[in-house]
Amino acid sequence: MALKRVLIVNKSFPEIGLELLKKKVEPIVVPHLDYEPESLPAIKKAIKGCDAIIWNTKHQLTGDILDLAGPQLKAISTMSSGTDHINLEDVFTRGLLLGNTPHVLDNCVADIAVGLLIAAARRFKEGVDEIMSGEWKYGVQWSLGQDITGSTVGVVGLGGIGQAMVRRLKGFDVARFLYSGRSEKPEAKNLGALRVPLEQLLRESDFVLLSCPLTDETRHMINANTLKLMKRNAVLVNIGRGGLVDQEALYNALKHGEIFSAGLDVVTPEPLPKDHPLLTLPNCFIVPHLGSATIATRNAMATISANNVMHALQGQPMMYPVYKT
């Protein structure tokens, strides 16, 4: 009996996941990276006849692409927690199983969030730029930033990553944690976090951390209007998705001092063009989507995504299934 065929759509898939697949299926790896122009055409060419897909790419997975695979296609797994690059309706209307890789990346993404918070609050970008340009100044009023101790931290989306961020920030003697989201989180009580409406969170927080999924409801939740609600000393940190923020509105708010600074791990588009206006701002600290970029985390994500599709092909529940809502 022929082995089931699993398409891996990006050649950067970690070796540990590939070796796991080889034990039970025939993995087929598209020999391109996301940003290479040959990537999407190669995916469309290779997908025909595949039984499962590991969609480890930023390309959108649409019904047109799924139809190229054929009727034998049964299962898909992302190598990510988010599914905003998957057209869920197209997947579920075709009766396909879908999995993702949540939780395993909570801690390392929370680490990046804390790093961004400190970097943006303490003006790392400005300081490094002045060192590099030979304009290092000094004095008691030079390069003053914002304190974390005694502050109010607002977390938009108190899921696994949001909770991990709060646990870390407790060590900084934060005075108060607020959170907003679609539902009450039972973990919030032990974390000492109070659920409030988004508008109240924005008005009262010294630090606003975005860690919610990107949906039609959350797209551009940070915009010209909501930015005006925030304190002038506020620091915005986004480790969710770039689409949560209206970047033109953020640029204007940062340029005109409506908020103090921003730290971003996610932007739109990715990669961000080198001439993008946000990159010109001294109070906007951006890193290139490094949230889950540790060796151990990426290996764990590859292992989970491989197990997701192999379980599905064997008629077993995926490790982390995504259900239709």
UniProtKB/TrEMBL annotation:
Keywords associated with the record: Oxidoreductase
Transmembrane among the record's keywords? no
Give all residue intervals belonging to the D-isomer specific 2-hydroxyacid dehydrogenase catalytic domain. Answer: 7-322
Protein name per Swiss-Prot or TrEMBL: Glyoxylate reductase/hydroxypyruvate reductase
Domain annotation D-isomer specific 2-hydroxyacid dehydrogenase NAD-binding: ranges: 114-291
InterPro entries in the cross-refs: D-isomer_2-hydroxyacid_DH (IPR050223), D-isomer_2_OHA_DH_cat_dom (IPR006139), D-isomer_DH_CS (IPR029753), D-isomer_DH_NAD-bd (IPR006140), NAD(P)-bd_dom_sf (IPR036291)
Question: What protein family is recorded?
Answer: Belongs to the D-isomer specific 2-hydroxyacid dehydrogenase family.
In the record, what terms sit under GO molecular function?
glyoxylate reductase (NADPH) activity; hydroxypyruvate reductase (NADH) activity; NAD binding
Q: Does the keyword Oxidoreductase apply?
A: yes
CDD domains (UniProt xref): GDH
Organism per entry: Papilio xuthus
A Pfam match: 2-Hacid_dh_C
Q: Cite the PANTHER family for this sequence.
A: 2-HYDROXYACID DEHYDROGENASE-RELATED, FI03731P-RELATED
Gene Ontology CC entries for this record: cytosol
